[in-house]
Amino acid sequence: MDSSAPLLLLLLMCSSIMVEAELKVYDLRVRNLPFLTDSYVKASCAGQSMGQTSISRDTNNPWWEEELYSSTAQADHKLTLTVMDSDVIFDDKLGSCTTTLASGTHDKICDENGWILYYSYTVK
């Protein structure tokens, strides 16, 4: 057997491994909602939930100091942030924004029917 075969096999195995990164979403704030809400933001990356913020009560300009994380994110994955209004029986979706992730730190603005979602994210 050729002595380079095990090395070649190892290289092929290593090249097929997906490189995972850490994603942090932070500095979430919404401006100009058309009415007072009890709002929160749900985050998902590549279809997997990253959790949600706490509820910001009785405001049309909510903001959150929380950070949301994913340890399985990769550059080119889709990040979706959904702004929700918390109600007693059913929560209402106010809107959502989706972006394709890129490595590094990014500040984003999403204009959604007259109100604006600001957020930052970092992919390491």
UniProtKB/TrEMBL annotation:
<protein>
    <recommendedName>
        <fullName>C2 domain-containing protein</fullName>
    </recommendedName>
</protein>
<dbReference type="GO" id="GO:0016020">
    <property type="term" value="C:membrane"/>
</dbReference>
<dbReference type="InterPro" id="IPR000008">
    <property type="entry name" value="C2_dom"/>
</dbReference>
<dbReference type="Pfam" id="PF00168">
    <property type="entry name" value="C2"/>
</dbReference>
<dbReference type="GO" id="GO:0001913">
    <property type="term" value="P:T cell mediated cytotoxicity"/>
</dbReference>
<dbReference type="GO" id="GO:0051607">
    <property type="term" value="P:defense response to virus"/>
</dbReference>
<feature type="domain" description="C2">
    <location>
        <begin position="3"/>
        <end position="116"/>
    </location>
</feature>
<dbReference type="GO" id="GO:0001771">
    <property type="term" value="P:immunological synapse formation"/>
</dbReference>
<dbReference type="GO" id="GO:0022829">
    <property type="term" value="F:wide pore channel activity"/>
</dbReference>
<dbReference type="InterPro" id="IPR052784">
    <property type="entry name" value="Perforin-1_pore-forming"/>
</dbReference>
<keyword id="KW-0732">Signal</keyword>
<dbReference type="InterPro" id="IPR035892">
    <property type="entry name" value="C2_domain_sf"/>
</dbReference>
<feature type="signal peptide">
    <location>
        <begin position="1"/>
        <end position="21"/>
    </location>
</feature>
